[in-house]
Amino acid sequence: MRKLWKVLTVCTLALSLFASSALADITIMTNDTTNEWWPELEALIEAGSGVQIEAVTSPSNPDDRVAKFTTILASGDSSVDLININDEMITQYMAAGFLAPLEEDVMKADVAQNFDQNFMQDRYMLDGHIYGVPTYNGALTMWVNQDMLDAAGVKVPTNKEEFIEAIKAMSKPEEGIYGYGGSWEATYSHNEIGVFINLFGGDCFDWSNEKSREALQFMYDMANTWKCTSLAQLSEQYEPMNQKFFDKKYGIILQWCGWMEGLAKTAGLYGEDQVHMIAMPTFETSSAFMDAWYYVLNKSSQNYDEAKKVLDYIASPDFELAYLRLANQPPARVDVLNGDAVKGPEYSAFTDLLSNLQLYHNTSIMRGRPMVPATMEYITVTGTLFQQYILGEISLDDLGKQQLAAYAEMK
Q1: Is 346 inside any structural domain?
Q2: Are residues 131 and 177 in the same domain?
Q3: What is the 3-state composition of the chain as percent helix, strand, coil, each rounded to the nearest 5?
Q4: What is the DSSP string of 151-179?
Q5: Same domain, 212 and 116
Q6: How many structural domains is the chain composed of?
Q7: Residues 267 and 142 in one domain
Q8: Are residues 235 and 309 in the same domain?
Q9: How many angstroms from the chain centroid is the CA of residue 25?
Q10: Is residue 241 in a domain?
């Protein structure tokens, strides 16, 4: 009798485990599961798609996360259907052929048209195929210390000439005060290099291009000729740059809008008379970078139909509004960003974030950051070359030649 009871217990447990696993139609991997709001978002995804999901937490360390995702995708592992990845990873995985294209069902023309087209072309589209569904879009925007502008007697810059006037007027290098502050550490400088190249109408992948050379010369002049930005920032990442900005050591910086807004509000410095975002000035053009995280479909998935139902929901306005409310991230769909729904009282806490993004979408060309499949290697190599140029160790001609060689090797 005891043996029979043990057998029944084992069978019952096995059936229970089978039933539990059978509830999940697909498996997704995301770091969003570490947030307290995840259960609510998961329930909304399941209700909106009609698909039961099993959510697996991805590694929190970025290097471990990339290693885990790459192992799954490269090995043909079908145990994970949808993966939540960033700009760097989608560039690498599209080129490697690890992802399933989505333009024939999920990101059909009537859906895809609602997302920023320039950013789509730059970042998650390859050879006419769309490979990701963004969960949000941020932007690298320009921020000013209004106190410093006022004290220097200059206005918010709207063009190149006014920008130069402003950073010169605010700079007191002998006191460690600079009109422009950057994050020019080798692995961070690519963001600002790209912004200035785009402002001059250059080519981010060709630093020998005439307009690209103008931008790079401009950055050299800021640091060396005009003394409007500090050589110390060649070792700085975002955190020290942010602190110097708040300490009124830097007058103008470039920073991701949602992050800087949150930091400034926490510090009690946010406002039109203190720290605030401005429209990107027009040099040759007005252009700004966007960023995103995406859900992508593992090409080896055995659950295409169910996975695409989930992606359909993630591409919908309902998901984007939920992600705004829960994750404090601005919508990737331009129609949602500019629509009436976000004006509702439940989104009042996000008024500044939304208006900042709306300003950039309506006044600037939004682009994806220049990346290649070997993204981090390329960023490090070109960042190091840029530093050597700023320090006068190589010429502008040599910089262009060596950058092109690095691009040819890693693209």
Answers
A1: no
A2: no
A3: 55, 15, 30
A4: HHT-PPP-BHHHHHHHHHHH-BGGGTBEE
A5: no
A6: 2
A7: yes
A8: no
A9: 30
A10: yes
User: What CATH code is carried by the domain that includes residue 164?
Assistant: 3.40.190.10
For 84, the token pair is 């939540």
Q: Interior CA angle at 304 toward 302 and 309, to 5°? A: 140
- Encoded amino acid at 134, one letter: P
- Is 272 part of any domain? yes
CB 233, CB 176: distance < 8 Å: no
Q: What is the pLDDT along the chain (411 residues), one digit of tens a residue?
A: 334 333 333 343 333 334 334 468 999 999 999 999 999 999 999 999 999 999 999 999 988 999 999 999 999 999 999 999 999 999 999 999 999 999 999 999 999 999 999 999 999 999 999 999 999 999 999 999 999 999 999 999 999 999 999 999 999 999 999 999 999 999 999 999 999 999 999 999 999 999 999 999 999 999 999 999 999 999 999 999 999 999 999 999 999 999 999 999 999 999 999 999 999 999 999 999 999 999 999 999 999 999 999 999 999 999 999 999 999 999 999 999 999 999 999 999 999 999 999 999 999 999 999 999 998 899 999 999 999 999 999 999 999 999 999 999 998
Instruction: Using DSSP bridges, classify how beta strands 178-180 and 138-145 pair: parallel, antiparallel or unpaired.
Output: unpaired
How far is residue 250's CA from residue 172's CA, in Å, rounded to a whole number?
10
Same domain, 224 and 272: yes
Contact 244, 123 (CB under 8 A): no
Residue 344 belongs to some domain of the structure: no
> Tokens 């210390």 identify what position?
145
Closest by Cα among 40, 56, 242, 281 to 154:
281
**Burial class of residue 47, CB neighbours in 10 A (0-12, 13-18, 19+):** exposed
Angle (CA) 126 130 132, round 5° = 115
Same domain for 302 and 213:
no
Domain range for 116:
24-137+292-337
Give the orientation angle of helix 62-74 with respect to helix 87-96, to 10 degrees.
20
DSSP three-state, residue 224? helix
pTM above 0.85, yes or no: yes
- Is residue 275 within 8 Å of residue 250, measured between CB atoms? no
Over its C-alpha atoms, the chain yields an Rg (Å, rounded) of: 24
98 plus 196 within the same structural domain:
no
How many CB atoms neighbour CB 205 within 10 A?
18
CA angle, corner 368, sides to 95 and 411, nearest 5? 35
Same domain as 261, residue 143: yes
Please report the sign of the dihedral spanned by the C-alpha atoms of residue 119, residue 120, residue 125, residue 128. Answer: negative
Measured CA to CA in angstroms, residue 302 lies from 26, 217, 349 at distances of 9, 52, 41
